[in-house]
Every structure is written in structure tokens, then in C-alpha cells.
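Re: folding output
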Amino acid sequence: MALNIKYRQLKAFLLAKESGSFTIAANKLGVTQPSFTVLIHELERTLGLRLFERTTRSIWLTAAGEDFYARIQRPIADMEEAYRRVADLAARRSGHVVLGALPSCGLTLVPIALSHLHEAYPGLTTRLVEAHNDELMRMVRTNQIEFAVATLPEATEVLVSLPLIEDWFCAVFPLEHPLGEQDRPTWLDIQQFDLILLSQGSSAREQFERSVPKHMMDAASPLRYDVTNVGTAARMVRKGLGVTILPRMALPEINLTGLGCAALTDATARRTISIIHRADRSLSPAAQALVDMLHLSIRELEPDLLPVHAVDDA
């Protein structure tokens, strides 16, 4: 038999039992006493038994009422807690998000966004995972992170890509280096010099290897150094050990004293930094709040980025 029991009736019953008064319970529920009494009568009719014994001065539970109270007290409390929890998530008063980011974005953009998020929504917690692009894509697919600040190499039905900002790869070289005389440096220009490249798996390395055929690089100056950290690469350039290729996004946080920088003008030297998440999963309210802060932080970061001239599309 289906029972048409409503939450408001159950809440009225619990308040009446816990306060020992219909008058006090009605005030707590925000209704008049006659309306409150109707709720109790409706519940009793639905159940087919009396829940309260009443006099003009007091109320107490019947045996059936005691049994009913024992059975519904915890479930109603759990339901109300679940409601409050979901309401807090929707209002961004609580929640947790795990995001991934390319090292260049983790160095500059993400800390700004996390600072704004903490200020606006102090109840939210976050965890940042830095990794190369291919690893970030794997982590998004396997639900290890909710979204990534990264690049999507090619369109896929599995992942959604929401563009955030266009980024460029830049040549970084000592001052008075021949590259400083190039108005429009290219991938082929830099492969003439000793190279300090970021390690395999990094976007900069993948872009370089796709854009400069291996036989052309081998015919010129070989790769001299293979490093992991962008700061290490810049310091090695400052010591005159060669030139490097770094993402424009990383440059504002790198010590570039004594160095020159120029964005490469090849079409293949640019990339789109995006918010990437699984197509079959919507972003949680906490994650969406962080995405909003990332967009805000882009506007804050852009004045510090290296100016970029028109690139070659051919």
C-alpha cells in the first residue's frame, strides 16, 4: 500500500514530540497552531492510528507514536543533513575540487585563481596536480582530476575543451645573441644553436619535435641539454649554454635578467590553453567557481605576458 506521507507532516510530528507542545512546535515550524494541528491529524489519518494523547495542557506520545518516532528520527535527520550538504555545495559554501595543470599554468595562472577562490569561497578546498599534457589527459579520462588546465591535441567525443587563452612558445636567449636580431624568429631559426629543451612529454618538447624534422635537427646543432624545470632552462641560458623554448605563460614568474625573449611566429608555435573535462560529467559547483576565477585571473595576468606579433598561418 502506497502511503502519501509528506515531509512537513513528519517534521511537525518530530517538533511536537521534542518540544512537548503543539504551540511551541507550530512556532518553530512557522505556522499557526490550527494549521499545525491539521498536519498532525493528516499524518494520523494516513497511518491509521493515533500518535499523540492530548489534554488542554500537555501532549505525550502513544505507544505507536513512540515506535514511529524511534524509526523516523534518524532517517529524517540524515535527509535534512543531506539537503543542507547539497545546498552548501550549490551555494559554494563547501566542496572540494581536484584540478590538473600544465607546469607553465601552475606557475603563473593557477595560483592567482586559487587566491581569488579562497577569498570569495573560503569553504571550498582544492588540490592541484601538475603534470605534462599527456598525463593530464589520462587523469581526466580516469576521473583522477575533475578538470585540467591544458591543451587538447585533437578533438574527441570523450573530452570537452573550453578555450581559456592562446599561448605561444618563445625563444629565450642571452642578450646580444643573434636571435635578438630576428624580427620574426621561427622553429628553424632556433635549431641552428645549442638547444636546452624541456623533457619528453612536455608541450614545448612535443611542439618542437613536430615542427622541426629530426633529420634537420641532427644535421645542425644537436640537443645539448634535456631539463625538467623551466627555471633551470632559463638559468642555463643565462650561463651561455644555449637557447631554450619556453611557454609564454611561464615567463612572468621566471628570472629573465640578462635574457632576451621572442615569440616564435610559426603557426605551430601557438597553442590553446583550455579547461578540459569529461564530456559525460558536468563540472561541480566548486569546480565551476574555480573555472570562473581562472577566467578572471587571465585578465589579471595578460598585462604581464610577452607581447606577441602576428604569426604565420601558412
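--- second protein (sequence, then structure) ---
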Amino acid sequence: MRYKQYICVLLLTIVGLQLKAQQNDVDINIHLRGVYESKISLLPMVGAKALQPIIVKKHVKAGASCKITIPEDRLPGQFVLRFDYTEKKDGSPYPVEKYCFVSNQNLELWVHPLHITKPDSTYFQMNEKENSLFDSFMKVNSLKKKNLALLRNFLVEYDNPKSKFYKLGIVEYENRRKEYNKWVSRQASINKEAFVSHLFSFQHVSSVAWVGDQKARIESMTDHFFDGIDFRDPLLVKTMDMRKWIDSYVNIYGARATTIHLRDSLFTLAGKRAIEKAKQGHPIVYGWMVDYFYRGFESFDIKQGMKMLETYIADPNCLTKKKMEIQKRLDGMKNMMIGSVAPDFKIEHESGDITQFLEYYTDSKYKLVLFWSADCYHCKEEVEKLNSWYKNLKDKNILDIFAISLDESETEIAAWKKAKTKYVGWNHIRAKGGINSPVASSYYILSVPVMVLVNTSTNEIVDFPKSIEDLKKIL
């Protein structure tokens, strides 16, 4: 019995060591030339802090080398190497970028920022695998797809779909489409050890019903859109192509929308179909799909779509990263409704006095609660519009503004203190804890800016203006 236990422990140890060996950090040694110096930044394309620098090397001189170590939890992945270079000692920095794939191979990269796109000036070592494989695949792929696109355009634009010639065109197109898809699958299989091979399936060309009207074709496109994609593959979500691919799927539905109501219904339907497909695959892909549609529903304020997600976040197989945010939004939809009493909060005046929002006395007909951040560009744009409109109001008794800042860092707070001096006549409050502060939580705030219009006499919520133009219409 002890012998069997020993063997079991030994096997587990070996497996653990093998997994660890496969998950090491990866180094990129960058050799700079052709410029005076450069700041070099690494930005992930997907995941946490996507398109934000996670590693920065400053003042790398020409002729020198620097090493960037990518942690194992980021691998494999797609990245951007950004070079903010100066040609001369006192020159102004100029940015250029190089996109690259990194898996489990240490890389050597020679870079001439002035010629970042030229393969004879900026290149990896001879035995580099991922980027060279992707480049060679895409070169052949573009030629094969070009001929397929010519046939497709012919079928779309031909004016006599009942002719024998048109029917022959359909047969030829379908034969070539199937042959092309087989080639894509074969390339993915041959190169399955490479991370970039997981992107090949996004090149798959789905079938289209060439008989029938435009509506039938669109239905056929959506029905077959997911053909060729293996949702059991968790590495799909490590690629930027996954997002681009699902964007194109949603756009098919969006193109059919003629009203806001129809748009919301179509986007909800698109989400339902896509999530149901992903549900049959890997829990990570399933969760990613739910998160993707949550962000879309949040951006467009699609409440029926948000309600649709409720079933999926309760599923233990759905590895969503946005479960808390989705639940918070669902709770907000139930509790923060037009006609309900607005949540209370404290207002600290410059004199040191404290007043409760619901007890705040004013002759104004309405109270506008505005959640914003001085560090948010979109917020600044909306707040400037609001301020311009407010300053020119003939009757200022129509509205009192309560601007609640969710700024947290020293830099953000400094920006807020400076910015608020421009907005005269407003009640300025900084919520300690930012997005996680009690007041932001009570209003179920997930992003900024957010406006809530409240009736002064009853403290009931009147509406949730989406913009200054929307606010004007409501008033």
C-alpha cells in the first residue's frame, strides 16, 4: 500500500515539474539601432491592462540591448512593443509599434525604429517560430482568399440568380470554399504545437445560402458563423482575433436594426446564440463570451440583454470574470428605477457642515447626481458640455448639480481639485473609495460618467440621462 502511495506521489511530482517547465517566463532581448535612444514599452493585446504598458524600459541607447521578461501568467499571448524614439539627443520622441506573438521561446529582436515595418531592418532571430509561422501562413492565406473573394463578389452582384451560369458559379464557389477550409484545418493541425495555429480557425469561411432573398442569406450567415471554431480551445481567448471575429458576428445583427428597440432585441438574440454555442466548449471560453456581451450590453444600456445573462452567471461552469459586475448591474436594475427614492449620501460643505442629500434644501425643481472622474477623457467631455449648458441657463432654479468624483490616486485627486474650480455653483463631493465607495455602490455605479435626475420635492428618480442632449429633452 505504501509503495502505491509513493508511486502516486512521484507521478504527481513529475507532472507538476513538467507543467512548471512548460510555464516559464520568456525573455525578449531587444537590440536597438539607427536612433539616438528610445523608451521601450510592452503592452498586452488582451487580458488585464490590455493595451496598457506593463513593462517599460527608459533611455535605451542605440547600439545597446535591453531585456524584457514577460511573466508566465501572460503567456502565450499577443503583444505590442512600442518604441518612443528620438533621432537626436535633443529631439522630440516619436512613437512606432511592432505587434508580436510570444509563446515559450526566448526571443532576440533587432529593431530599427525608423524602419520598423521592413523585415531587413527589424527582425527576429533565424529560428524564431511563432511570428515567422504566422507571417508565412497569412501570405499564402491572402492569395487563397483573394480568389475565393472574387467568386463571392460575383455571386453577390450577379443580376440573374436563376441562370445556369449563376448556378455553376455557386458550385465552383462551394468547391473552392470547402477546399480552402480543409487547407486551413490542415495548417492548424500540422502546426498545433504553435500558439499562432489557434488563430488559423478564424480564417474559416462559413457557408451561405445563395438561393433566396437577402434575409435568407443573412440567416444562413448567422446559422453557420460558428462553423470551424473549436470552443473547447481555451487559447482562443488569448488572441485579439477572437474579439474581432465576434465583433463581425454582432455587426451582422446590428446592420439589420432600424430602431433602438430592434437593435436591443437583435443584440440580445446575438448574445444568446453565441453564449449557447460557447457553453458547449471550455469554461474559460464560455465565461469570456458572457463577459464580451456584458460589456456590449453595458455600453448600449441594453437591459433585456443584461437580464439574459442572469442565467449564465449562476452556472458554475461559466468562468466569467465579470460575475460581480453583472450581478451589481442586475441588482441596480431592480432597485434603481424611475419612481424609486434616490439613495441618500452625505454632502460635506466647505464650512465643514454636513447635509444629507435627501434633506438638502433647494428651490430648484430637480437635483442632478453626476458621477464622474477628472482623469476620464469621456467624463471631461461630457462635464464641459454640462457646464457650458448650465452657465447659460436663464433659470438656474430648474436644477442643482451634485458632482461626485470617483478619483482615488494622488494624481487623480490633484486633477479633480483643479478641475472643480471651473464648475462654479455645483456641489462637489469626492467619494472616498472611488468606484467601490458606499455612495457609488448604493447607486450601482460600474463606470463613469453616470447621471441620475431626481425630483427635489419627492426625492424620486425622474430619469437616467445618457447625455447632455438627453438631459435637455427630459427637462
